């Protein structure tokens, strides 16, 4: 089973690219700060994880997702390869976001392809402090 679930804070406004060709697809990239607990020195230990979304999910990311929003992401890992300019094969892995839920004080707001409701702009008003997520 190829299933990824992450909870984190969006680190900056997402990058969005609209399809230029008729047979192309929209793409959005964003980064989540995912907490990994506290180190022995008391400082936060977190990973910044890069994600990509395609088609309708990418459109929603571009319209609704902003820096400092708390989100739950469900997706999968995509492994691929390409040939670089020098003719070398480069292997890559991406985490593809299939569904995004925005965490608000009222609960979760779905941001799957079928959802188009308004999303909050920041994490202010959430029922936890920044150090507790």
Structure explained in plain terms:
By secondary structure, the protein is mainly β. 8% of the residues lie in helices and 50% in strands. It is built from one helix and seven strands, in the order ββββαβββ. It has one helix spanning 55-64; strands spanning 4-10, 15-17, 27-38, 44-54, 70-83, 89-104, 107-110. A five-stranded mixed beta barrel has the order 1-3-4-6-5. Strand 3 (27-38) and strand 4 (44-54) form a beta hairpin. It is globular, with a radius of gyration of 16 Å. The two termini are 27 Å apart. Residues 115-123 and 125-133 have low confidence and may be disordered.
Largest sheet: 5 strands, mixed, barrel
Indicate the radius of gyration in whole angstroms: 16 Å
* Portion of residues within helices: under 10%
State the separation between the terminal residues, measured CA to CA: 27 Å
Q: Uncertain segments of ≥5 residues (pLDDT<50)?
A: 115-123, 125-133
What fraction strand? over 45%
Sheet/helix structural class: mainly beta
For the secondary structure, the number of strands is 7
Question: Which shape, going by the Cα principal axes?
Answer: globular
Give me the oligomer status. Answer: single chain
Q: Give the averaged pLDDT, no decimals.
A: 81
Q: Please write the string of helix (H) and strand (E) elements.
A: EEEEHEEE
Number of H- or I-type helical stretches:
1
With strands numbered from the N-terminus, the spatial order across the biggest sheet is 1-3-4-6-5
